[in-house]
Amino acid sequence: MTTASLGSRAVDTASRPVVKGGNPPGTCGRHVAYAKRLQIRKNGTGRGGYGASGLMCRGPLRRPYHGGSPFERSLVKRIVVTGGSGKAGRAVVADLGEHGYEVLDVDVTASMHPDDPTRIADLTDLGQTIESLRDADAVVHLAAIPAPNIVPPGETFRMNMMSTYNVFSAAEILGMSRVVWASSETLIGIPFEREQPRYAPIDEEHPRLPESHYALSKLAGEAIAEQFNRWSGIPFVALRISNIMEEPDYAERFPGFWDDPTLRRWNLWGYVDARDVAQAVRRSLTVDITGTEAFLVAASDNCMTRESLDLMAEVYPDVPVLGDISGHETLLSIDKAREVLGYDPQHSWRAYVSPG
Ligand SMILES: NC(=O)c1ccc[n+]([C@@H]2O[C@H](COP(=O)([O-])OP(=O)(O)OC[C@H]3O[C@@H](n4cnc5c(N)ncnc54)[C@H](O)[C@@H]3O)[C@@H](O)[C@H]2O)c1
């Protein structure tokens, strides 16, 4: 990718449109096209999109606008999804677009989908972050180094901490209505080597026991969110997401889990489909809360062919199992997400691969 500095922003110069005479100052051809689309959309037949005022607007705006009554249209919100080019982000951008939101991906990497507009920015830089989030009503913050051991621990912490601080700061400075962001299941003590689960199913009340610098960055994010909420009144929803899977993962990876119950013991055999992450994000954007809330987000079942109580008895015989767990039910409780968000996971590996 070719990048160049534009003020405080790094932009993808290869994909910037050539501006020829005739466009208003400070706009490009795509902005003019966007204005035309906006006019069409106001007439009820056009498509959604986002980026009328951003210098880095690029790419046709793919997501369909679903119309609805004038009242419903007035509720359409402009959402920035940070990390929208990544695994969870792709599903979130698609889902929000399909539900009538105007969405902009902000990422250091352009979206793989040629029609998704990406605003290229490094969110570890506060100036770039504020510029990139300027026109949004709310932000879904997913950008991060998404696991331990991808880059050195200190770099994981620096990048995740600075980008999270900058996004939360920008939300406050820009007066956004809401922040929904990716915390992580790793907060609960994963990989349960030094620590043991205190009980199962694990819920949001379980002690937070970060065991990596990655998990530490998520714990710090939750602490910082509480203070930004106190200062600004902006609601912050933290999603403690389980191990994210996409459809091809089910056939390619899951059969390899089944013979050895210790292989996936590290997160109590949990997982979640990226499309269900997107559902949780969407519901978090409108749930009626004023403070900070955290929700575990997992599939409703485990990743194994064996039943959950059977797995607990073999691998964690000393961990108390609370409540009724039946069959392959998840050991990462999604009760709070179900009750408060209305979260209802739709995707299980069992629909894609036979236990054999
Ligand atoms: N993948 C999982 O199993 C999992 C589980 C729990 C939580 N999470 C969290 O969910 C979120 C999304 O994870 P994912 O699996 O989609 O990760 P991903 O790596 O597929 O996507 C992350 C995106 O963030 C972007 N990014 C990283 N640093 C950036 C920066 N400084 N500025 C701008 N963009 C930047 C990357 O380019 C990438 O497109 C992360 O916050 C991760 O910590 C992931």
Q: Main β-sheet: number of strands, strand sense, barrel status?
A: 7 strands, parallel
Based on CA atoms alone, the radius of gyration comes out at 21 Å
The number of helical segments is: 10
Strand order of the largest sheet: 5-4-3-6-7-8-11
Query: What is the H/E order?
Result: EEHHEHEEHEHEHEEHEHEHH
Oligomer: single chain
Residue fraction in strands: 5-15%
Shape verdict = globular
Q: Name the CATH homologous superfamily.
A: NAD(P)-binding Rossmann-like Domain
- Give the uncertain stretches in residue-range form: 1-74
Hetero groups in this structure are: nicotinamide-adenine-dinucleotide
Q: Quick check: average pLDDT?
A: 82
Number of domain modules: 1
Based on helices, strands and strand pairing, what is the structural class? alpha/beta
How is the CATH topology named?
Rossmann fold
CATH architectural type:
3-Layer(aba) Sandwich
What is the CATH class name? Alpha Beta
Assign a percent range to the helix content.
25-40%
